[in-house]
């Protein structure tokens, strides 16, 4: 286990380095800079700003400084919002994105698993087909199509929920719904698949033969193992939720990390983009690691690679 | 490869059927699969829809009665659906039906080309790695692992924001995101196939490695590859749509479904039909691809009912 | 319990939960009794809160360093200047200064500060604060973007550019705590309107010296304006509450102001329609909506101090030939663009400076004259467009800019026989190209900073950073210098008109349209008026819950008297 952990952690470091370097050079070589504006800045002011941010130093110096600072998790102040440090911005926006993602996944499990179970139990009946068709539809409708349609119906026609923002419980509803739909569908399919596998097993037949009620058979015996694909999907699910939240945050103007990434890129906010990208990468890799570790706990047949 | 992924295994465990040296096996497999597929009504309906869509997209310039999607009528402006314009018009007076159909051309083209890119790279990579085995295999798959853990979509976004947004860049960027899984699947297949008798005989006959890989092994991996391709196309279309939604994908005057949805969403409060029609078109197409992919998977390997995420 | 029944129960519970999330009362009064149509939800807020969309997240809320309208709106709520603009006419009214005198030679302003004004942390506001704040703006190391606003002050420009080292020589003085004296380099009739700009807002010295760059953080900041900051989350919102230490707090009727930092135009409009915001400021409505919004009573429009034009790089052939430039100018059909393309939402405009300067007579604007255009082109050596090299129009990526460029491309092809290309770049690259003169023709806009035509004319001086055309004319520079020294306003305006005529004649810009303000305002919001500079002091705003029984024009005519007849001076607390 320890060797596995060490190997994985060692893999993370060079990956982060690659990402950081790529992003750093991409930003530096992209046309336009953070201090250009429609209106001219006096030359003295521009020089001063560049000096402040170390942009007047040679490129390799800037790069080394960036590496040194990144290790200390100090990304400096944001270019666009100089009163704030990048780490500050990230930690202010992080709870929002986490909350959005957590609700979405929770909803996905709460709704997806029961649907999948029912579909498996009622395999090849109308309920199964209906559920799976609905699931497939959920996967196929992109969240940037679903979002505006929900806004149209529930916000602009019936003034039930606000069309955007993240203040107050009502404003949580539409973004979470939009983000979770695809995962409800995925999880339903996974659960169905997993349950079908399990329901074929002999010990299930034994349990039924023993006279246990269908519900007990399903919920107490089959579900534990049938839900394994869902559990293993947690990692990729969380990762995808992170990606999906970028779009949802844009549509609903949710002040999370995804917004900072997109806006920061358009604003040429070097430090902020670097910080956010590295943070995301680290987060995703740690998540995958955790999921892999937890998977071995659940299914001792699995060997860690 | 994450441990979880390894445990679930690639979607397609090797068939228990014995191999035949002459290659007649693939034919009976296909005929068999086709029969099973035909019974899946949803898959058949999807195939019909997609074929019709493909034909319509291809022949769009010659369809009689279809308006020119770039024709502007500024005095008309945006109108709701009418008899003259079934899907209504946008704020420049362009016919939305035409825009949706031509948008489909672009979306499908991007989907197919990018998938082709990922197919070529992925199949080659996976086949070589699987066949060669040993150190080469380990190196190649290690590279895949590292690349797999990169948050690709960020780099793609950054790339497109800072540099050119040509359609070529888009193909490459999208294709690069998808080839990894393809490589893994193909490698898994190749690993199980390379010890089969027909490979041994080909080697005995003096065929070069390249010939063995590409003429004998790869054709036998076609089953899972086809299924995966059918599921990759919608994934790529979706990604392109997502990038277009952010303004990074297809650039005007070309418009894909993603750009149409994005543009339409910008005028949601007044002209909702501009979102609804392209959105439905996009969703329906993706749905059909998914149905078809599912159906193909069931048809080619009926014992495997597991859904791989 | 059977799984199916369980599922049904879950579904029912979910539905119930969802419905109960809906707010208790949402009166959707689509048509008020007067028969007018309103855009969206009409229920006024339950509390005395004014909510609006503020646009992009402000880069900073330090008045001396900021640039941008969203930044300015917040700063103007938290800080107050010497003078305060009238909500309707923008005339200077007493602010932190209750009185000011101008010396007969027009060079010295003496401001007398009100007694008892304090910062929100308790410290008194003195003339020294104003002196320190303005010197801070002029300090080269501060890198203030709008230090140019204070250049009329004697020696300010030299000091800001680093040529003058001694701060005492700059024409600002505070002889005692409540007197602030400003000495100008030459008479500047628009000086007071210059000081509207947020750069001239005072800042608390004690806080800045203590906290440095972090002084605007919510736990540190102190202001002297009608509101104080109570909540700030990036990309989310600002919340401000009435400032109890403000000198005129008795007349501030709002308890709270919420400003959402949303920059997507469509989202802003959706928020307004759904009733989340009460005001959608100008510029936050998607351009495509404008033609369809005219029927709504909450749609307000008026002339705005900004023009849209094409800038020509006169250093590149064939654009270095003045006849070519004149030809291009005369072949643009502004009327058609404005009427058909822009659906009449913008006025066609053949001048450089916009309207709205009382007393200023614009020189004759450029009109559409294809015949004359062809003559000019022939005189330049390209009769019928033959041999005309390929040039391109540059614009930053936007559907609106593209459409106009396409229309002009078609016009030039039709009327002049020349073929040009279009080139769009994203914002960063576009800025780089225009500042480094790497373009042929580029789309530009300019917004006036103060109520005087000079703000549109000074940028074309030789070497000005905002020139970006490479044009240099000693004759023009001389005209502007004479105008600056001219004391008589009529003569001065005549000189400025002559300068503008010169710019137009030389064809270095191709004017296209005049901007308008377009905003949406809920009928229950009173005290907010359409102004030429799009400046709206928030302390005069109040929520009128009885707006339906008190009909008065909310939209078109800002000079309607009924709005001001609100509750008495003790406000609606």
Write up this protein.
The complex is a heterotrimer of chains A (305), B (309) and C (573). Chain A has 305 residues and is mainly alpha-helical. Helices cover 76% and strands 0% of the residues of chain A. Chain A has helices at residues 2-29, 43-52, 59-71, 86-121, 126-140, 143-157, 170-199, 202-209, 214-226, 228-252, 257-267, 270-298. The N and C termini of chain A lie close together (10 Å). Chain B has helices spanning 3-8, 25-39, 41-59, 96-132, 134-149, 152-162, 167-193, 197-204, 209-220, 222-245, 257-265, 273-300. Chain B is an all-alpha fold and 309 residues long. Chain B has 12 helices and no strands. In chain B, helix 3 (41-59) packs across helix 12 (273-300), helix 4 (96-132) crosses helix 9 (209-220) and helix 11 (257-265) runs antiparallel to helix 12. Chain C is α+β, with helices and mostly antiparallel strands and 573 residues long. Chain C contains 16 helices and 19 strands. In chain C, strands 11, 12, 13, 14, 15, 16 and 17 form a 7-stranded mixed β-sheet that branches. A 4-stranded mixed β-sheet of chain C has the order 1-10-9-8. In chain C, helix 9 packs antiparallel against helix 11 (370-380) and helix 15 packs antiparallel against helix 16. Chain C is globular. Chains in contact: A-B, A-C, B-C. Chains A and B meet through helix 1, helix 5, helix 6, helix 7 and helix 10 of A and helix 1, helix 5, helix 6, helix 10 and helix 11 of B.
């Amino acid at each position: 286990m320890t060797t596995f952990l060490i190997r994985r952690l060692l893999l993370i470091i060079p990956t982060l380095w690659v990402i950081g370097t790529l992003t750093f050079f991409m930003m530096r070589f992209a046309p336009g800079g953070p201090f250009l504006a429609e209106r001219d800045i006096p030359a003295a002011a521009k020089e001063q700003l560049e000096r402040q941010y170390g942009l007047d130093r040679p490129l390799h110096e800037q790069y080394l400084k960036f590496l040194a600072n990144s290790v200390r998790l100090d990304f400096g102040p944001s270019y666009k919002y100089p009163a704030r440090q990048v780490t500050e911005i990230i930690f202010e926006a992080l709870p929002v994105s986490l909350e959005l993602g957590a609700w979405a996944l929770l909803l996905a499990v709460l709704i997806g698993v029961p649907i999948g179970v029912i579909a498996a139990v009622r395999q090849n009946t109308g309920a199964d087909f209906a559920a799976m068709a609905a699931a497939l539809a959920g996967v196929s409708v992109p969240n940037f199509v679903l979002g505006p349609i929900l806004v149209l119906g529930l916000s602009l026609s019936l003034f039930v929920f606000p069309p955007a923002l993240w203040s107050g419980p009502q404003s949580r509803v539409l973004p979470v719904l939009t983000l979770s739909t695809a995962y409800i569908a995925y999880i339903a399919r996974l659960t169905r698949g997993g349950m079908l596998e399990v329901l074929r097993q002999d010990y299930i037949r034994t349990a039924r033969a023993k006279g246990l009620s269908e519900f007990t058979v399903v919920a107490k015996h089959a579900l534990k193992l049938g839900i394994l694909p869902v559990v293993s999907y947690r990692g990729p699910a969380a990762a995808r939720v992170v990606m999906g939240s970028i779009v949802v945050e844009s549509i609903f103007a949710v002040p999370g990390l995804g917004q900072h990434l997109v806006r920061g890129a358009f604003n040429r906010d070097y430090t902020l983009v670097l910080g956010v990208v590295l943070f995301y990468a680290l987060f995703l890799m740690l998540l995958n690691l955790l999921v892999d570790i937890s998977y071995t706990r659940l299914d001792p047949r699995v060997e860690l690679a | 490869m994450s441990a979880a992924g390894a445990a679930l295994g690639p979607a397609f465990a090797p068939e228990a059927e014995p191999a035949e040296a002459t290659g007649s096996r693939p034919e009976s497999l296909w005929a068999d699969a086709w029969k099973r597929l035909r019974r899946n009504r949803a898959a058949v309906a999807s195939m019909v829809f997609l074929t019709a869509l493909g034909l319509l997209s291809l022949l769009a310039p010659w369809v009689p009665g279809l308006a020119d999607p770039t024709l502007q009528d500024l005095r008309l402006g945006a109108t709701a659906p009418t008899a003259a314009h079934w899907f209504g018009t946008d704020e420049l007076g362009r016919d939305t039906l035409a825009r949706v159909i031509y948008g489909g051309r672009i979306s499908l083209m991007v989907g197919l080309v990018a998938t082709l890119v990922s197919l070529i790279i992925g199949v080659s990579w996976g086949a070589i790695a699987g066949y060669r085995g040993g150190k080469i295999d380990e190196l190649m798959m290690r590279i895949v692992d590292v690349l797999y853990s990169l948050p690709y979509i960020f780099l793609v976004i950054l790339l497109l924001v800072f540099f050119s947004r040509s359609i070529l860049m888009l193909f490459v960027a999208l294709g690069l995101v998808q080839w990894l899984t393809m490589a893994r699947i193909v490698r898994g297949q190749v690993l199980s196939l390379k010890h089969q008798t027909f490979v041994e005989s080909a080697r005995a006959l003096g065929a070069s490695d390249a010939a063995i890989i590409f003429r004998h092994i790869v054709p036998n991996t076609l089953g899972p590859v086809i299924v995966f391709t059918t599921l990759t196309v919608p994934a790529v279309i979706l990604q392109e749509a997502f990038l277009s939604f952010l303004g990074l994908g297809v650039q005007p005057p070309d418009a894909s479904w993603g750009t149409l949805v994005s543009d339409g969403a910008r005028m949601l409060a007044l002209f909702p039909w501009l979102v609804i029609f392209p959105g439905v078109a996009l969703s329906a197409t993706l749905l059909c691809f998914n149905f078809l992919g599912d159906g193909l998977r069931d048809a080619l390997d009926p014992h495997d009912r597991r859904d791989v995420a | 319990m059977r799984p199916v029944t369980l599922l049904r129960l879950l579904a029912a519970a979910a539905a119930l939960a969802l419905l109960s999330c809906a707010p208790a009362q949402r009166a959707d009064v689509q048509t008020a009794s007067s028969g007018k149509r309103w855009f969206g939800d009409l229920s006024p807020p339950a509390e005395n809160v004014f909510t609006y969309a503020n646009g992009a997240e402000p880069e900073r809320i330090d008045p001396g360093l900021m640039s941008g309208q969203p930044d300015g709106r917040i700063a103007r709520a938290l800080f107050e200047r010497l003078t305060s603009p009238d909500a309707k006419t923008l005339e200077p009214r007493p602010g932190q200064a209750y009185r000011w005198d101008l010396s007969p030679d027009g060079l010295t302003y003496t401001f007398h500060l009100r007694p008892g004004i304090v910062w929100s942390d308790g410290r008194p506001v003195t003339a020294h604060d104003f002196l320190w704040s303005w010197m801070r703006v002029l300090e080269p190391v501060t890198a203030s973007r709008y230090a140019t606003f204070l250049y009329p002050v004697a020696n300010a420009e030299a000091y800001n550019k680093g040529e003058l080292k001694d701060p005492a020589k700059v024409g600002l003085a505070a002889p005692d705590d409540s007197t602030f004296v400003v000495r100008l380099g030459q008479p500047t009739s628009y000086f007071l309107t210059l000081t509207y700009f947020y750069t001239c807002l005072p800042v608390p010295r004690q806080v800045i010296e203590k906290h440095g760059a972090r002084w605007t953080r919510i736990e540190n900041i102190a202001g002297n304006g009608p509101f104080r900051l109570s909540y700030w989350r990036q990309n989310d919102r600002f919340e401000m509450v009435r400032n109890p230490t403000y000198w005129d707090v008795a007349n501030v009727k709002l308890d709270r102001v919420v400003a959402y930092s949303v920059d997507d135009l469509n989202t802003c409009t959706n928020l307004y329609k759904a009733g989340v915001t009460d005001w959608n400021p100008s510029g936050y409505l998607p351009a495509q909506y404008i033609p369809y919004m005219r029927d709504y009573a909450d749609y307000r429009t008026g002339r705005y101090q900004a023009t849209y034009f094409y800038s020509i790089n006169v250093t590149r052939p064939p654009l270095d030939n003045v006849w070519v430039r004149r030809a291009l100018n005369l072949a643009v059909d502004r009327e058609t663009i404005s009427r058909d393309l822009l659906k009449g939402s913008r006025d066609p405009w053949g001048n450089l400076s916009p309207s709205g300067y009382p007393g200023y007579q614009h020189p004759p604007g450029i009109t559409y004259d294809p015949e004359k255009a062809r003559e000019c082109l022939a005189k330049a050596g390209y009769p019928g467009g033959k041999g005309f090299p390929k040039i391109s129009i540059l614009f930053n990526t936007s559907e609106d800019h593209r459409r106009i460029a396409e229309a002009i491309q078609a016009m030039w092809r039709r009327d002049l026989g020349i073929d040009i290309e279009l080139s769009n770049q994203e914002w960063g690259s576009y800025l780089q190209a225009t500042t480094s003169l790497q373009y042929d023709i580029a789309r530009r806009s300019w917004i006036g900073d103060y109520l005087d035509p000079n703000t549109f004319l000074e940028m074309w001086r030789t070497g000005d950073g905002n020139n970006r055309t490479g044009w240099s004319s000693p004759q023009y520079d001389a005209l502007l210098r004479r105008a600056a020294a001219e004391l008589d306003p009529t003569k001065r305006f005549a000189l400025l008109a002559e300068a503008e005529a010169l710019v137009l004649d030389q064809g270095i810009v191709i004017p296209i349209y005049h901007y308008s303000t377009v905003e949406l305002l809920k009928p229950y919001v009173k005290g907010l008026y359409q102004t030429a500079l799009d400046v709206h002091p928030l302390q005069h705003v109040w929520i009128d819950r009885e707006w339906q029984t008190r009909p008065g024009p909310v939209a078109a005519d800002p000079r309607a008297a009924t709005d001001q007849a609100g509750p008495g001076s003790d406000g609606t607390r």
